[in-house]
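Quick one: structure for this chain?
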Amino acid sequence: MSQSLSSPPEITIQTAIRHPRLRYVLRVVGDCLGYRFRFFNDRSVFGHTETRYLITYGESGRHNFPAHPLLSGKPYDFSREGDDFKHSPDGGVTICQTPEGPDLLAAIFFCLSRYEEYQDFTPDAYDRFSASESHAYRLGYLDRPVVREWTAAIGRRLVEWFPDLPAPTTHPFEFRPTYDIDLLWAYHYRGWRGFASGVRDLLSGHLARGLARFTVKAAEDPYQTLPFLENLHREFGLKPTYFWLLSSRLINHDTNPFPIPPAQKEWMVRLSRTSTTGIHPSYASNDQPALVEVEKQRLESIIGRPVSDSRQHFLKLRMPETYRKLLNNGIRSDHTMGYGDAVGWRAGTNLPFPWYDLDVEKETRLTVHPFAAMDVTLCKYLDLTPPQAEATVQKLATALEPYGGPFILLWHNSSFSPAYGWAGWRAMYERLVAYLSAK
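Got it. Here's what it folds into:
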């Protein structure tokens, strides 16, 4: 079969398995490697007299990948962690083991589909699937981009089988900073909440902070770090993404001012011209899905353009309800894929990938953008010092470097003030941005 110079090399796969899971994972793997997988008896392939690169899946053949039942759509008990679901002695990870060897395609699907999050689990205090519940955390590979490792192994095997097959696509390492803006000012535009917080500070012994609430100018507010961040982005040529919390239901976890202050609207419009702008759906929206549309329209009316990016407030993500809710409200890119209680790759990859809805066995139009680490995780959950946090993030970047692609951090504009427990984090973040931008 002739190949166009502009089209990806086509690899024909012969298998009796026709489940949508297999088609999905082959497309994701193909996109990463720069190949296109076609089934042998598909209409686009059937009838060709030449099949240049032919592999089999779960069948006898010269170039065969072993098949695990997971990609046949059969129920799979991931909690067994028996012979087909364990660590291998050499430090690797063996998931979906078969008598013929591990099925890397099934292992990739297990991670990307978040198969385990559809099963019964014990939720954390915020009703989330926590890292400690995950197979990757329990077996110690959460800090490795295992999907990228397995995809690279598939690529190496294909090139070994077909020496004239073009080498897999390479992905340059790219640092992408993202920020959740829950509250743009600590002291200003807070209304009765700000007054109550000031009184509470004074009564609890935080005299300096309490007085500052009533004396510090808005431009010097400890949470108003956007000028600092934008200068940092310009210095290193970075394009950030900002997610704005715009709730009108001011419950404990939704702390933004409402109505939105004109000064905040000015910042939102200004940043939307040079950065990606997304919605930060309120905590209340998890119980009242209609609020997502209201808050999305609120953001669109402020910046004057459509919004298709989102990240859940408090990383509130439940499969499949959250993603269906976002899709129904016009969101096409979600950036929630990460944990609050641990760093690493929740789905085993750093590359964006289409969400696969297991309940209906269908690939969707929602693209998932995983992040590697969150500031609150490093400081509050893991109780790391700034140097320890810096080393932790650098270790993640080093693990990813052989495979490349986006390296996304989740930070908050409020995570730099010594008055709120962030002494030393501003200087550390500057070093971290410089380090990641130079890779």
